[in-house]
Amino acid sequence: MRRPGRPSFAVLTCLLLVAALVPAAGAAPDDKPRAGGELVFIVAAEPPSFDAHREETFAMLHPGAPQYNTLMRVDPFDRTGTKFVGDLAESWTISADRRTYTFKVRQGVKFHDGSLMTSRDVKASYDHIISPPPGVVSSRKATYQSVESLDAPAPDTVVFRLKYPEASFMAALASPWNWIYKADILARDPRWYEKNVMGTGPFKFVEYVRGSHWIAKKNPDYWDKGKPYLDGFRAIFIPSSSAQVAAVRGERAHIQFRGFTPADRDNLVSAVGKKITVQESPWNCSIGATPNEQKKPYDDKRVRRALTLALDRWEGSKALSRIALIKEVAGIQVPGTPWATPPAELEKLAGYGRDITAARAEARRLLKEAGAENLSFTLVNRAVPQPYEPFGIWLIDQWRQIGVTVKHSVLETSSWFQALRNGEFEVAVTAPCNSIVEPDLDIHWFLTTSPVNYGKHKDTVMDDLYARQSRTLDPDERRRLLRQFEKRLYDEEIHFIMGFQWHRIIPHSSKVRGWTIMPSHFLNQQLDTVWLAE
Amino acid sequence: MSVYPLEHATASATLRRRLTAVEEVGKFIHAKPLGAAGAAVILAMLIVAFLARALAPYDPYTGDYELQFARPSLDHWLGTDEFGRDVLSRIMYGARIALFVGFTASVAGCSLGALLGVLSAYWGGRVDLLLERVMDILLSFPQLILALAIASILGPAVQNVVIAIAIPIVPRVARVVRAAAMSVKENVYVEAVRALGASRPRVVLQHIVPNVFAPYLIMLTAQLGSAILAEASLSYLGLGTAEPTPSWGLMLSGSAASYAEKAPWIAIFPGIAISLGVFGFNLFGDSLRDALDPKLRRG
């Protein structure tokens, strides 16, 4: 019974809650970017060089990208990473036959040394990528095989002419690796950018101390007026994942852009609560098993089909997403993106159905029919904890359930690569990884001529489907061809036993605003839109 | 000259009669209760390892994904791990790997070490000089560092772990046995059999080796605990057995640390198993040394 004359406990609690929430409400929905502050982010490895045209690692891209612009870029607020906007390109036109791309380049953009950027610099940078001079390494040269010519007819115009129409060409131009360098410097020394940093980007390079940090400050002459919002950033190099978690937990760093494990996310959230914001996204990397088709019985597609039928992907997704960087059950494209397989179609593929008992009975039947009833092999895996090891353990457990005995051989990365390249494996865990979500860029791994065709399959039908989908101008036709490619890859020939899509988890300080997670840790690293809340 | 009655002599002989095995065990328990406790732990480990198939409540390899991170309960006494595998069953099967690697590595390392020690002591001269310098080189590396280096060269596999653990044991045992063999070699009875024309192998195998068996046995029990710990360490560092094979060190490695707050039982129980196993062998080894060392033996 309530005593008269005393305010009730509930009323007092409500008043306290209102009092506590009023200032918080004023700060929390603050959508207006705030200028100032230094963003501190973690990079797990050291950059091998400073040249993005050459390198393939996030360790170089994360600290380096904010100092540069590209011609096109992925829309920094598009979670699918499939919308393209101009960066140094102000506008563009595409000819009716889709073979001529004409770009108007922004005027008045300055390099950090004060010189003006023109179309000549864009041409020189793309020449450096497409036709590198002797001694210069260009990692993505092959992506631009369709380019017939590249011209800069006026200081504000760049024209790309293609040998044939290519659906992915705009995506290729939005590659986060294609930094625009200064033409005069490239002319003097094509390898200057391997050891120096000088672009047109929102931040100016200050210093890099190996094993410690990389510092950059705001570019006050940045062409996009009002940006960047930050005064600067400091990248700190921390290889150990537990030390990375401790740094975010202890507010010594705001963010790590590559990704944390589910366990790390849970630990951070339970330790610091609302001070942490979690962004998650499907990751444009997949993990699966590649059978070596040069070895028996993996040259028999019944055996390969049995191995894919044994996997309970739907239950596996639930279980593994709690402990590993993998989650989505997917086809050849990241779920939720324009070319992704509709769920109803996905379930028609071998091993993607919901009736796992029937699938495993069929798997046993196929193994018996192929004379591989007591199949036993060694699964070669990479000694990288996430997500390779938990996935390997899960695979072995799944295959045991159709009577297949699997030994797990976990190799250090260089030995794993060596085993794959030399074909010294029966079945190996492999993980194709990409940046922009675009079929051309994502499925080239499975072509007969691909340097990463570790299973050594020969499939001219699939090669032809790839070329046709890439050159067609009709989106519906492209979609149809992609589904055919996927059916052949995962259902009919099973050159790759797809497991799951990776899942990117970024728990970061709630102070970090204006940054949107995307399906690749290579995308959206320019940091021009990022700001820090008070 | 004094004459002792015959009865007295007979009574003395009766007092020194040989003890039965049960009596010997009883005497050992009474004299060395800690050693007996260690022996009990070893016996329990052996029983669990040999009867794991019958004793383990679940298949250690099969994951129950509905039961990931299940707390210790009546169904799963020590809880389940991140794959929903029963931790108790994995510890029971893990005892097999621990004992197999521990015994084979210790026996191989100690036997080779003892053989080299005896050869070195008996032959002397250049053989001794050469063998001892090789032992010096091996001894200049800490035991685990040498095992790590060998394991990383050979690659992760059970047989490679045995080799990696056995090699660092060799010089340690060789030194101890060499010292004992040099002392035995100088005994008159060895000189006597040599004078009688016994061959070198006969002298070594029949007259020296049996007399250095006590230090060999002591080193063997002492190295067993270290070998179990080394196996766990190598597995922890990813150089031992590979998942999903149940191994105590492997159970502690990888993501177990990440789940220290969420599911501490994943790391705690394998840790206890390792500690208990090593502790058991060390206690037993110490007591055995005391029992076999004439200087420390009472009476």
General description of the model:
The complex is a heterodimer of chains A (534) and B (299). In chain A, 30% of the residues lie in helices and 21% in strands. Chain A has helices at residues 9-27, 58-64, 119-130, 169-173, 183-188, 241-249, 262-272, 301-309, 313-320, 343-346, 356-369, 388-400, 413-421, 439-443, 460-471, 475-492, and strands at 38-43, 72-74, 84-86, 89-94, 100-105, 147-154, 157-162, 203-209, 213-218, 232-237, 255-256, 276-291, 376-382, 405-411, 427-430, 497-509, 512-513, 531-532. In chain A, strand 6 (147-154) and strand 7 form a beta hairpin. Chain B has a single domain (46-296), classed as MetI-like (MetI-like fold, Orthogonal Bundle). Chain B has helices spanning 6-15, 21-31, 33-50, 52-55, 87-123, 125-139, 143-154, 158-185, 188-195, 200-208, 213-236, 248-252, 265-292. Chains A and B meet through helix 7, helix 9, helix 12 and strand 14 of A and loops of B.
Shape verdict of chain A: globular
The level of helicity of chain A is: 25-40%
Range of strand content of chain B: under 5%
- Mean pLDDT across the residues of chain A is 91
Describe this structure in a few short sentences.
The complex is a heterodimer of chains A (534) and B (299). Chain A is 30% helix and 21% strand.
Task: Give the secondary structure arrangement, pairings included.
The complex is a heterodimer of chains A (534) and B (299).
Chain A: H1 9-27, E1 38-43, H2 58-64, E2 72-74, E3 84-86, E4 89-94, E5 100-105, H3 119-130, E6 147-154, E7 157-162, H4 169-173, H5 183-188, E8 203-209, E9 213-218, E10 232-237, H6 241-249, E11 255-256, H7 262-272, E12 276-291, H8 301-309, H9 313-320, H10 343-346, H11 356-369, E13 376-382, H12 388-400, E14 405-411, H13 413-421, E15 427-430, H14 439-443, H15 460-471, H16 475-492, E16 497-509, E17 512-513, E18 531-532
Parallel strand pairs in A: 1-10, 1-11, 13-14, 13-15
Antiparallel strand pairs in A: 2-3, 4-5, 5-7, 6-7, 8-9, 9-10, 12-15, 12-16, 17-18
Chain B: H1 6-15, H2 21-31, H3 33-50, H4 52-55, H5 87-123, H6 125-139, H7 143-154, H8 158-185, H9 188-195, H10 200-208, H11 213-236, H12 248-252, H13 265-292
Helix pairs in contact in B: 2-3, 3-5, 3-13, 5-6, 5-8, 5-11, 5-13, 6-8, 7-8, 8-11, 9-10, 11-13
